[in-house]
Amino acid sequence: MKARRMSLKRIRSAALLSSLLVVLLLVPPGARAQEVTLDRSVLGGALARPPTSNTGTPALPAGFPPQRGVEVLRSADPPLKSAEPSLPAQPEKPPGPPTDFQQFAATSVGTLLPLFGRDLFAAPPSTFAPVDDLPVPSDYVLGAGDEIVIRGWGQVELDVRATVSRDGSVNIPRVGPVSLAGVRYQDLEARLRSAVGRNYKNFELVASLGRLRSIQVFVVGQAQRPGLYTVSALSTLMNALFASGGPSPTGSMRRIELRRGDQLVGEFDLYDLLLKGDKSKDLRLLSADVVF
User: Would you say residue 195 has pLDDT above 70?
Assistant: First the structure.
């Protein structure tokens, strides 16, 4: 019986020490020194009779502040992470392979130099605003697909929105067809006044352009994205260059040609724009033009 009592005491002592060790390990180091103080009397009393809770499990010994210990454990918990997923970092687009001239220059200067002016075409074409809402220049040439808006009052009342047909004419009620193909915008009202004046007198008339037609141009040669492009009739050579991504790394920015049929309409040097801000040689495009 005496040996059995000794073994029960050892088992109880071992269970209590294990419980105290777990509690001490869970409490942060600073809290152990400030919050937990166990003297010999408390430890001796606990070893002699381990306290139990209502549930039958070993409870904390007298002198240990359970509520403050719980607060310390709660304050030591790591903060919860946000459940919102973070967007992955977008990898940078690697630069293209260096050209032969870049490699040749690198042998002299000791570093790989970027191509001058390539940053002008780094943005995609979608960043450029369309040219449909720009004022129509006076030298704009009317063609099939352009919309004409006519207002007239006096002896004749006119409120007409007509589209230039494929044969280059518009049909005006009580007046008849009027040929407008090849007419400049600055001469539009004079042409319409002359046509209406054959049947009516004492009237006033104003005319403007509504929706403009689209044209197709070719971008060929050493271009970044050569091909056939559909652009607004108000587009210029620079608009076609931006749409196609500009000259390729093996091309040149110094000599960009605009060809119309078998004629060379003009040349454009991008260095005039980059270094001087000069855009005076930027030419307006016509249908079937070739940018080379």
Answer: yes
What would the pLDDT profile of 146-175 be if each residue is shown by its tens digit?
A: 999 999 999 889 999 999 999 999 999 888
Residue 52: CB partners within 8 Å, gap ≥ 6?
58, 59
Give the E-state strand segments of 141-219 in sequence order: 147-154, 158-163, 169-172, 176-179, 203-209, 214-219
- Contact indicator for 63, 104 with CB cutoff of 8 Å: no
Looking at per-residue pLDDT, the higher value among 227 and 51 belongs to 227
Tens of pLDDT along 76-135? Answer: 445 554 444 444 444 444 456 787 888 888 888 888 888 888 888 876 655 444 555 678
Phi-psi group of 277: left, alpha or beta (phi > 0 → left; psi -120 to 50 → alpha; rest → beta) = left
Between CA 241 and CA 229 the distance in angstroms is 10
Six-digit token string for 239 = 């608009």
Question: What does the radius of gyration of the chain's CA atoms come to, in whole angstroms?
Answer: 44
CA distance 144 to 247: 31
Instruction: Write down the number of H helices and E strands in the chain.
Output: 8, 10
Residue indicated by tokens 């004409």? 148
Give yes or no for residue 60 having a pLDDT over 70.
no
Name, in order, each residue with C-beta under 8 angstroms of 162's C-beta and a sequence gap of 6 or more: 147, 148, 150, 170, 171, 172
d(CA 182, CA 83): 65
Q: Is 168 within 8 Å of 144 (Cβ atoms)? A: yes
Task: Spell out the alpha helix ranges (H) of 162-268.
Answer: 188-196, 237-244
The pTM score is 0.56
C-alpha to C-alpha distance for 19 and 234, rounded to whole angstroms = 86
**Mean pLDDT value of segment 188-216:** 92
